[in-house]
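Target protein
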Amino acid sequence: MSSTASSRARNRYRFRVVHASNSVSRIYYNRHVEARTRGSFYGAAPGPVYARFMLRRAVSVLLAAIVLTGCATTTVSIPNATPGKPLTVPGWELRPDGPGRFPAVVLLHGCAGIFESNHEWSRWFRDQGYVALLLDSWTPRGVGKTCDPSLPDVPNTERFDDAMGALRYLQSRPYVDPARVGAIGWSNGGVFALSVINGPSLERAKKRGVVLPEPGFRASIGFYPGGCYSLVQELLVRPLLVMIGDADDWTAPGPCVEMVEAMRRRGADASIVLYPQAYHYFDVIGQPREYLAQVANHNKPNECCGATVAFDAGAFADSRRRVAEFFGYHLKGK
């Protein structure tokens, strides 16, 4: 990145820019970086923060990620929270050994449906001491595993209701701590991970007659979430972490930056990390860099078509560390 381009990035996004050597990767941060002060996971910091993506560390994380343990996966079917006509949504539940009570995480897939990557994340959460509940919102609605623009548009309320049904289910389990449940979503699922802690979304759900399980989701994470532009004028009521590549041409980072900055100005506990030269699916292990020509894309004329995807080992390793720290603080901390 040239010094001129770097200056533009700092001025537009108010990010700190950390330059890279062979063993230190650049990363853009907003000005609120890691400092556990006054009960907030992310606070203000006086100077730049350096993120070191050591190759040895990235490789060790990848190797750990593909090791499978012996704990069983349980297939579940849960009613969502739609008033009057709840839909039965299938899913996969994984939980650690022991009686609990454990913190828990609801996982929300992207527009292409369930990936092996989603299952890999579920196993990782289980190994970290969480009950993981991965929902399949597409199968019961007859939606295929594709992001083709010709597919039927599922109303936004439906995936919100799925997440609330999952929260209610987890809170009913004797091995789950009902006050320590988080949400995490990818792409299309990412915006719903945001919506379940968005104050106006919760109020709109109440007006529809949705019974919201108390105390609700405790914190949320969005990986390259779609729909950030729709939440710029709204306000989160629980902590949020967003992670996205600055080269993402499917869910552009700009609106997510704008959303986080706007919400922070209104008092929200929200942070965003941008990974330089990383694309959509940067956390999907083994995903080659390719251009998906047939996928719907809000950033294209008439929302069609095409986007770049690619795994990025450094961004993945760093994002996994951040997930562990963020949920560790908000779901496991006192």
In short: The radius of gyration is 19 Å. Residues 3-282+313-332 form a domain with the Rossmann fold fold (CATH 3.40.50.1820).
